Amino acid sequence: MTEAGETGTRARDTGAPTGKAARELIAEAERLLDAARAVLADHTRATDAIHAALAPILDSLIHRELAAIPVSRLKDVTEGRLRLGAVEQAGYTTVGQVHEANRYELRQIPGVGAQTADQALAAAGQIAHAVRDTVALRIDVEAPDESTTALVMALHRLVEAGPDVRRAVDAARRLVGQLEPLLTEAGPARGRLRMLFARRQARTAALTAVSSVRTVVAEATERGLPLLFGQVSVDLLRAPESDLAAWVDFELRSAEYYSLLAEMSGTHPDRDAAEGFLPSGIADRVRGLRLDDAHLRVSLRGYQSFGARFALAQKRVILGDEMGLGKTVQAIAALAHLSARGETHFLVVCPASVLINWVRELRARSTLRVLPVHGPERHEAFADWRERGGVALTTFDALHTLPAARDGGKRPGMLVVDEAHYVKNPATRRSRAVSGWAGRTERVLFLTGTPMENRVEEFRSLVRHLQPELAPSIRTTHGVAGSHAFRRAVAPAYLRRNQEDVLTELPALVQVDEWEEFSEADLDAYREAVAAGQFMRMRRAAYARPETSAKLNRLRELVTEAAGNGLKVVVFSYFREVLTTVREALDNGVFGPVSGNVPAALRQELIDEFSTVDGHAVLLSQIQAGGVGLNMQAASVVILCEPQIKPTMEHQAVARAHRMGQIRTVQVHRLLATDSVDQRMLDILARKERLFDAYARRSDVAETTPDAVDVSDGSLARRIVEEEQLRLATGPTEP
Questions:
Q1: DSSP-assigned beta bridge partners for residue 318
Q2: Residue 102, domain member (yes or no)
Q3: Which of 639, 670, 669, 652 is nearest to 707 (CA)?
Q4: Do 689 and 606 fall into the same domain?
Q5: Which residues of 206-228 are buried (b: 16+ CB within 10 A; e: fewer)?
Q6: Does residue 44 carry a pLDDT above 90?
Q7: Chain centroid offset of residue 425 CA
Q8: What are residue 673's DSSP bridge partners?
Q9: Which structural domain, as residue segments, surrounds residue 289?
Q10: Do 457 and 550 belong together in one domain?
């Protein structure tokens, strides 16, 4: 047999293409490899830019910390062996001064030899390294300077590119590792003569490599990697339009910037705290689980990834993180992981007040199919879910009306129950319905922000839904012993982290849009206001029927959760009558309202009284009265009853709590109604005004005269009324 015949036989045996087909395949693989290398190079340039901008800022912070540490602390590092008398007499009084000196300078000090100089420098270096691991970088949007602007712009490139960057980089690294050696071995197949004159062993290896290259290229194409690499490279090369645009983006999603900053700087919260002080055996098992984020559209922070993996590893648990830490996104990450591993059906049960938020979060944070199973068409939606899969979202009140997951029916890959304290009473219908589904589902995740160590009986009731064998071992004494002791005792079924433990890398401001759907009574009141063409009445229509108000119900839930965590709350509204409605809906411990008819001298006295209360309290304030000149930094939760016509007014109100002296992360919850004046206002205000307002907001003019930089009240009102009248077909009534 000729060598050409042998080559053809081996090609048929390996299934490898030959001749022109092989050359075309290799060319395609080389293009794919070039695209992968380009992504890695672009990512390296982006991260190098961040490190270059970050280094001088960290050095400055470390220098400031070291300048406050007395030089005597160097003895602690050397266990007292270091003699520092001569060094101190020479004027070196701080660790920072020693750290900045060099060996030659220290040796010039009388009585300091080479050994002492080296030991002092080594000890100062160890302290500097320890300081670097703990230093907290805060970016002040109110006082941007050249160095922080450079850092924000460098971070913007990666933040703007989004979570696809990580997937592209991981895929590119794997692809480069696979294709580089294969293309080297496939070298003889690039040309007919090269194949003809190659040794037999080389020809065989080349054909085997070509077959492997075809498999790698086919898999990469099926996963859409060529398109992903091209898009990510474009994103990584795209600079912000201006430094102002980067600052605006930072304000809008600062959490993502700080999360990336923590990753780049290597500063993370204490691991034990981030892992909820779990026993080492459970923590090790959770760490060993690799989270599949193929269906996620968001980058998780370290503690959030751990929370999702805890739910997956332990299967039936309560995630009890303090409010503001992202329990919803951790649940979504767990669902996305299971979807990537082949699960097709999931069920989320929640109060009606947060159902629309779940819909929005799932669509924004994942690629999972979402089906609201709520309202008059819930049975049709449920049947669709059973047939086609996805995430079914339903309410506690609707769950009992749905067919249970009996034998033969499709069982969810995971059941998620939000605001799980709703099922603490086993005698209620909602609790029995949840228990029925939980009993037939392998993985169950309860979410609640209420601290359970103070509610041991309630916790025991929830655990009976999940791990009934654990419930008898949970005793009241576990709660009395303190939060850490309680968490360790119930670790198989409970994970809780506090803000102060894990938010070291996050901004001091977390903003959440709380979208609600009008109740029937809300909608009737809103339609009446639209028909009358009364813009201000449209804005407060969500509170016109307090007994069925969706916004008011959500406000109560937020205040209740804040009370459970001992947090103070400020509630802002433009309308005095809305604040009156809120006051009547809340329990004791409500101050205010601070309003225009309260003399200016008395407003701060009212706020001071609110501030001195030990623990939870609620302050009500008209946004025009409380937005300027008052200090409310005792509050760490801000609730805005409705969006404001003037964005500066909203910003200034939040700034009353989020300012110097505030030691906790401030959570801002903006209550919004879908398909209403709220949505129209946000759509309009979010357009061209955003850049201009962000610039003006940092100016002296904006602080004193917000009217000068906002859009016209009248024109905005007329436009919204006309749009809503058209949408609701109520007729063109004159506003």
A1: 446, 494
A2: yes
A3: 652
A4: yes
A5: bbbbbbbbbebbeebeeeebbeb
A6: yes
A7: 32
A8: 516
A9: 271-503
A10: no
How many CB atoms sit inside 10 A of residue 684's CB?
A: 17
Q: Are residues 230 and 259 in the same domain?
A: yes
Residues 583/593, Cβ–Cβ less than 8 Å: yes
Task: Give the per-residue pLDDT at 380.
Answer: 93
Look at residues 546, 584, 551, 582 and name the one whose alpha carbon lies nearest to residue 677: 551
Based on the domain organization, do 478 and 570 belong to the same domain?
no
Is the residue at 733 inside a domain? no
- pLDDT > 70: percent of the chain: 83
Q: What is the pTM of this model?
A: 0.65
Domain count, the chain: 3
Tokens of 652: 């200034």
Q: Which whole-number Å values give the CA distances from 285 to 278, 310, 387, in the listed order?
A: 11, 9, 35
Q: Look at residues 368, 363, 392 and name the one whose alpha carbon lies nearest to residue 380.
A: 392
Domain boundary pick from 232, 267, 302: 267
Beta strands in 264-357 (DSSP E): 316-319, 345-350
Cα–Cα separations (whole angstroms), residue 150 to 45, 139, 146, 660, 693: 15, 12, 6, 24, 21
Kindly tell me if the per-residue pLDDT of 507 is higher than 80: no
Residue 1 CA: distances (Å) to CA of 7, 19, 374, 672: 10, 19, 73, 80
The answer, yes or no, to whether the previous bond of 593 is cis (omega within 30 of 0) is yes
Helix (H, G, I), strand (E, B) or coil at 495: strand
| First-to-final CA distance of the chain | 94
646: left (phi over 0), alpha (psi -120 to 50) or beta: beta
Report H helices in 444-482: 456-466, 476-480
DSSP designation for 548: G
CATH of the domain at 443: 3.40.50.10810
3 state SS for 16-50: CCCHHHHHHHHHHHHHHHHHHHHHHHHHHHHHHHH
68 and 145 assigned to the same domain: yes
Q: Which of 662, 680, 670 is nearest to 721 (CA)?
A: 680
Domain boundary (249, 267, 285) is at: 267
Pairing outcome for strands 414-417 and 444-447: parallel
Mean pLDDT computed over 211-234:
91
Q: Cβ distance 549 to 522 under 8 Å?
A: yes
694 touches 248 (CB < 8 A): yes
Residue 94 region by backbone torsions, left for phi larger than 0, else alpha for psi between -120 and 50, else beta = beta
Cβ atoms 668, 640 nearer than 8 A: yes
CA geometry: angle at 259 spanning 501 and 447, to 5°? 55
pLDDT at 197 over 70: no
